[in-house]
Structure formats: structure tokens, C-alpha cells
């Protein structure tokens, strides 16, 4: 289980594999100078609700991985997260699609 920390105060626990995919999307967007919002649901044990932060190049953030091994990358998941990050609603953690699937086929399947 990893952790994403934003501006030193907002933090969320995220499984290492999911965190790797989020890190990939966040850093790619920031390299291109594209700020965006990132939202997550808070655990009921910490009060519940939802948090949304504005991700921009000047923001302080940390991706903390607790596992010792580097998780494998699922390109379809990275593409799905990037698609969400580019939408008006912003980035949020989506379920991992089947590895090797394409974003277009996942969207068609979800619409059926």
C-alpha cells in the first residue's frame, strides 16, 4: 500500500500498483504543462467524503511506495487514467482494465 501526499497535508493511501499508474499520468501531464484536478474518496474511518486537489507544476507532491518491488505497468490502465485526467471531471482512480485491451474497446463495452 502506497501513499500520495499533496502539499504536505492532503494524503491518501493507494495500492502500489495503482499509485505507479497515477504517477505516470500525473508526471506526463505536468511535463506538458497541463494542470488538472485529481479526486479521490476518503475512507469512512477518516470521516469519508471526497477530496479534489488542483495539480499544477508548482505543487508539492510525493508518491510513497511501500513495496520493495517495482509494480508492472498495464498500458491500458495508464491510457484509461490519462483519458480521465483530460476530461473536465479530472483524474480519478478507475478500475484496472484487462491488460492488452484498448481504451476504445473498454468504452464500447462500458456503454453496452
Element layout with pairings:
Layout: E1 2-6, E2 10-14, H1 16-31, E3 36-41, E4 50-55, E5 61-64, H2 75-86, H3 103-111
Antiparallel strand pairs: 1-2, 1-5, 3-4
Helix pairs in contact: 1-2
Please name the defining characteristics of this protein.
alpha+beta; disordered C terminus; 5 strands; 3-stranded antiparallel beta sheet; 3 helices
Summarize the structure.
This protein is α+β, with helices and mostly antiparallel strands and 112 residues long. Helices cover 33% and strands 23% of the residues.
How would a crystallographer describe the biggest sheet? 3 strands, antiparallel
- Could you tell me how far the N terminus lies from the C terminus, measured between alpha carbons in angstroms? 33 Å
Number of helices: 3
How are the strands of the biggest sheet laid out side by side?
Answer: 2-1-5
Structural class: alpha+beta
Q: What number of domains?
A: 1
Question: How many beta strands in the DSSP annotation?
Answer: 5
Contiguous runs where pLDDT drops below 50 for at least 5 residues: 107-112
Report mean pLDDT, rounded to a whole number.
88
Proportion of residues in extended strands: 15-25%
Can you write the helix and strand succession as a string? Answer: EEHEEEHH
Q: Tell me the Rg in angstroms.
A: 14 Å
Describe the fold and architecture.
- By secondary structure, the protein is α+β, with helices and mostly antiparallel strands.
- It has one domain.
- The chain is built from three helices and five strands.
- The strands form two sheets. The protein has a three-stranded antiparallel β-sheet with strand order 2-1-5. Strands 3-4 form a two-stranded antiparallel sheet.
- Helix 1 crosses helix 2.
- The relative contact order is 0.21.
Amino acid at each position: 500500500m502506497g501513499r500520495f501526499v499533496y502539499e504536505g497535508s492532503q494524503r491518501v493511501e493507494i495500492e502500489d500498483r495503482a499509485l505507479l499508474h497515477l504517477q505516470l499520468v500525473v508526471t506526463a501531464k505536468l511535463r506538458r504543462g497541463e494542470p488538472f484536478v485529481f479526486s479521490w474518496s476518503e475512507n469512512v474511518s477518516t470521516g469519508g467524503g471526497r477530496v479534489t486537489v488542483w495539480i499544477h507544476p508548482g505543487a508539492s507532491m510525493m508518491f510513497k511506495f511501500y513495496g520493495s518491488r517495482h509494480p508492472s505497468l498495464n498500458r491500458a490502465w495508464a491510457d484509461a487514467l490519462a483519458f480521465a485526467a483530460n476530461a473536465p471531471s479530472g483524474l480519478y482512480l478507475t478500475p484496472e482494465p484487462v491488460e492488452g485491451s484498448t481504451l476504445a474497446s473498454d468504452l464500447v463495452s462500458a456503454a453496452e
